[in-house]
Write a structure and sequence with these properties.
Elements (H helix, E strand, L loop, with lengths): L1 E2 L3 E4 L6 H9 L2 H8 L25 E7 L5 E11 L4 E8 L8 H16 L4 E7 L3 H9 L3 E12 L2 E11 L10
Bound molecules: coenzyme A.
The site of coenzyme A has 21 residues, from α2, β5, α3 and α4.
Length: 180
Amino acid sequence: MLTGGKVGLRARHEDDIPVLRTELYDDVVNASRAEGGPWRPLKPDTKDPRLVVDDTQQGVVAFSVVELDGGALIGTATLWGIDNHNRSAHIGLGLLPSSRGKGYGTDVVAVLCHYGFVVRGLQRLQIETLSDNAAMLGSAERNGFVREGVLRSSAWVLGEFKDEVLLGLLAQDWKPDPKG
Ligand SMILES: CC(C)(COP(=O)(O)OP(=O)(O)OC[C@H]1O[C@@H](n2cnc3c(N)ncnc32)[C@H](O)[C@@H]1OP(=O)(O)O)[C@@H](O)C(=O)NCCC(=O)NCCS
């Protein structure tokens, strides 16, 4: 397991799946804002790759996020679009509603940076998020990500086009302790 100050990132367990499905993907607003595509219902036995991890997919690494104190499941974290030629990847995360706004997101981004830069030897990590997602922007910027551009009206979210912000962090600019 990878550990930060407050969270651990471990493999997806079978019994994580119903919790993540109910709390993240059955929530139309959350899923529509976070997924970049239209919401659709997931069957109880779904094999959707956001829930059921396919270890043979080399370009994606999916984690379940747990509290270090007690081990409770609090969300998901993903390194995706891993490009071993350009040595870059994207970061994604989603926390259960009751676990938001407590600093966990900032810690998850820190652990994903460690995984990307140290474990995988990547040079660049990237995040795309809606321009009104203050918590995601804060979690990224606290870890040293910088805003590289705005993708105007790039996301269709529940009846309107929204801007997305593109943030990037290079290995040489990364400082492992975001609170430091
Ligand atoms: C986005 C998300 C992962 C951030 O994690 P989090 O644990 O809530 O964020 P943190 O508590 O670490 O807060 C990060 C920063 O944002 C600020 N923040 C948190 N929630 C906020 C809110 N609702 N409004 C404004 N600022 C907020 C914090 O004060 C903190 O700022 P600081 O570093 O200056 O102190 C989490 O809120 C989440 O899962 N949201 C729903 C799914 C989602 O949006 N995923 C991202 C898709 S790209």
